[in-house]
Design a protein that fits this description.
mainly alpha; 60 residues
């Protein structure tokens, strides 16, 4: 089931909006690669937080 910025897993509710957006994007891509939902969420959250650290907002 693909997620959106308005409909995302409960575990993503406390993420910053830009991190949540990236996590949703990554999670949806992982689901298309047949990842199990829980694994996709966990991996996407970790990767999105890593992305946020490496791409500060002031550089956008």
């Amino acid at each position: 089931m693909p997620w959106s910025t308005n409909d995302y897993p409960p575990s993503m509710k406390n993420l910053k909006p830009r991190v949540r957006k990236k996590a949703v994007e990554i999670a949806n891509a992982l689901l298309e690669e047949n990842y199990e939902e829980g694994r996709a969420i966990a991996t996407a959250t970790a990767k999105a937080q890593e992305w946020d650290e490496n791409h500060p907002e002031d550089k956008e």
